[in-house]
Amino acid sequence: MSNTAQNGELFVVSSPSGAGKSAILSRARADDPSLLFSVSATTRPPRKGEQDGREYYFLERDEFMRRVDAGEFIEWAEVHGNLYGTLRSEMDRLAASGHDAIIEIDVQGAASLREQACTMVSVFIMPPSLEELERRLLGRGTETPEVVALRIGNARHELEQYRHYDFVVVNDDLDTAVADFKAIIRARRCRVERFADVPEGGVRAAIE
Ligand code: 5GP
Fold first, then answer.
1. Residue 157 lies in a domain
2. Mind listing the pLDDT tens digit for each residue in 121-154?
3. What number of other Cβ atoms are within 10 A of residue 15's Cβ?
4. Residue 4 included in any domain
5. What is the pLDDT of residues 165-204, one digit of tens each?
6. Fewest 10 Å CB contacts: which of 14, 73, 99, 172?
7. Range list of H helices, 85-144
8. Can you tell me the distance from the alpha carbon of 141 to that of 132, in angstroms, rounded to the nearest whole number?
9. Is the CB of 44 within 6 Å of ligand 1?
10. Which structural domain range is residue 58 located in?
């Protein structure tokens, strides 16, 4: 199965909840609007400010499972008690665009794509410590204490998975983590494969 665009790359990004993945990715997106993001489906209720079709497609569990049965997901997993999945239609949209694209999925989702031999670059965002992770999760106030406890419990297992990824970004200082993440994208854009079909117009046209 080929699911990267001819000129674009698929960056699969995972991290334990609270490691700062969203902050890093939103900064990367603001700095480089050509980056596309996959919109996943989930059964988790929307948080304040989240919009259907923008952060996620929010689905009832029955509808989610109906789509699973219909083969609409390239991968899906239960994460912290809710279902999350990447729609094939989203992957097709990203691939057809020819742009670099990012999908944020948990460690199970990334493992599933790896098993399917997806062409991808995987990046693990690592918190500086479990204590810091808990402090950030409690501080952001978007989850109940029970949900925070569940997410911290899951983080221990998730952290062990980092060794299966191509790159690790430690998010101790946000600016440094953003710079590291952008450096990974930049390095991939400099790979010789991206220059395989240099048009008459020159190399710039081939990578933009
Ligand atoms: P949150 O509820 O905080 O938005 O996301 C919780 C977890 O679900 C995060 O680790 C996130 O990466 C993961 N997640 C989001 N979308 C998907 C998806 O499409 N597939 C999988 N496997 N995990 C996802």
1. yes
2. 999 999 988 888 888 888 888 888 888 888 888 8
3. 27
4. no
5. 999 999 999 999 999 999 999 999 999 888 766 667 666 6
6. 172
7. 88-97, 107-115, 130-140
8. 15
9. yes
10. 10-192
